[in-house]
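>> received
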Amino acid sequence: MPGEVAIKVRWQDAAEAVAPIREAGLFVPISKAGEEIRFFVSRPLFLREPVGYDNDFLDQYAPNRTFCLSKAERRHLNERGRGEMSPACCVFVWAYERSAAKYAAQRQSMGEPDPFLLVMNDSLLIA
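>> returned
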């Protein structure tokens, strides 16, 4: 099928594009199990086996009261997250701050909305 070939090529191109970044050490080091998971989740959708949710787990889960990870695992991840920022994290922070600054500049350049037009707009939506 032509669509599948195009997707396969794009996926392969993406893997090749990431290779220099990986070689430069900008990826967070992960375990062998993590490598296997990364491989499966980075595959194109048409190559993945569909799975559903475990409804029992979802029904029992209470945010901030029940946890998927053990206390030791949560503590370990918390401690790992407190260290020096990785280059990948630095790039994320830089991109976020740049986007926030651009949004603020754009928002400021628009000025305040006209209250009369806001009322008129609301009345048009109601009608």
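>> Residues 87 and 106 are 28 Å apart (CA to CA).
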